[in-house]
Amino acid sequence: MAESRKTGMSVKELRQFADTLFGKRTPLLSFWQEVAENFYPMRADFTVKRSLGNDFAGNLMTSYPILCQRDLQEQIGTMLRNRNKPWFKMAPKDPRDEEDHDLKEWLEWATGVQRRVMYAPATLFTKATSQGDADYSCFGQAVLTVRMNREHDDLLFRCWHLRDVVWIEDEAGKICAVFRRWKPDLRTMCRLFDGRPGTSVHRQVLQDVKKDPSVECDCYHFMVAAVLYDGDAKGMPWRSIYYDAAHEHEMESVAQKRREYIIPRWLTVSGSQYAHSPATVAALPEARLLQSMTYTLLEAGEKIVNPPLIATEQVVRSDMALYSGGVTWIDKEYDQRTGDALSPLLTDARGMPLSKDMQMDSRSLIAKCFYLNRLDMPERASGMSEYEVSQRIQQYIRAALPLFEPMEAEYNGSLCEETFGLTFDNGGFGSLMDMPAKIRSASAVEFRFSSPLHDAVEMERGQKFLEAKQLLAEAVALDKSAYAILDAKAALRDALSSIGVPAKWTRSEAEVIEMERNQAAQQQTAELLANLAQGAGVAKDLAFAQAAGKQGGGGGGGAVAA
Questions:
Q1: End-to-end CA distance of the chain
Q2: Checking CA distances to 148, which of 57, 172, 329, 400 falls within 20 to 30 Å?
Q3: pLDDT grade, residue 377 (50/70/90)?
Q4: Rounded to an integer, what distance in angstroms lies between the CA atom of residue 504 and that of residue 553?
Q5: What is the mean pLDDT of residues 114-134?
Q6: Rounded to whole angstroms, what are the CA distances from 165 to 20, 22, 154, 224, 437?
Q7: What is the pLDDT of residues 447-469, one digit of tens each?
């Protein structure tokens, strides 16, 4: 019988494995450092340690690449998570539950609850995602966490430096372990891990904190899949371990249901767990060229405006005073007929316009690398036909899809799912008994997002409805029976849903059917009463006619008799 092989790692083995991953990732830090120096100087501390007051962009001649990166960063936040409108909504994973009106109402209510939870000031959601957007646009990935805060009464979002985090993938290409270096001060370590059940700090820390609580200590946070941990996972898929590397002491080890780390990745290549930003990879050569070109142009312009001078040796008796009102002394015996004692060295400026055109071309290419030419929605000018509008929307979707599609799935999707799971597990949506039975599990819900791309797609669906209406009108003019082809109710319901009409504003199909039945019954009753009234009137008229006939007949008979 084959012996069972150990697959998990102890805490010390996890620390050694983390150090190995950090060592292998070292060459990538040099690339990230150069990218940051050109596009995101505030983050350019991957391989150097900056001091407070350092001039971040002291090596740059132009800030245009930084502005392009900033524009893309702001566009990501504005387009994917626009706070002025609901940018996500919950929906059932099972398509068969889409038409459940009560379920849709509860999901809309739960969407509002999660939105209020995420944007509560104590969660720091806006701060963390703003920092994450910058890392994502510049380096192609970001590392964020969402967890309950220390008081366990609110969520807490954080964004971590890429320099301090490494991770690995499993055989399915999913992240299965995250390792983060951390340097808390001794006071923070004691506040977090001393006194709470299941946590402890090394005794040396308890002694040192009394001397100088501001001293920093090398620590790690391991978040590994349960199969990688050599210990009792307690039925949970993840294990969270805080490790004091300086004293080789395990401060906390907790089995967790959720990974806590959100690592959206833009463009990955096979063989590497780290992603790249297609914007900065394409723009980096142009950014280097633009910096060099700008320096040359500045130097050439300075030579034209303030040209260098040629001085005759042993003639100029003082330093050249080139400022306003300055006096330069020349030997009185010097003969000016032999040439000027001082003369400017003129620079040919005919190449300046060409250099300016080359500089503008580089700027244009950098803007294209950052997709800034694809982010504006096409405007609908007066006089455009519905077909022309539809074609422009299609063109926008084709151009914007490569940019927004991975962001929504990797970035917004992970954020919302982790937030929903934490809120669900901690009773943020109320009792399970108050929830619809179909979604009493966090895995039964999926998220759909509102962005310029989705707005364009939904706009196209509304446009299809208007086009169908026009076609139907043309067809009915030829054949009146053609109106039966289009299910107007289904088309209208789909169009209203596509433009985001709340479920509370509409009635369910069962309610509509019931209203139609009531309306048909009322109409039938009204027709019956009308028929009865008409029959009663006819009978009254007939009786009146008969009575009048009898009176007329009796008078005539009397006359004959007379």
A1: 137
A2: 172
A3: low
A4: 71
A5: 94
A6: 12, 8, 25, 13, 40
A7: 888 765 566 566 566 667 777 77
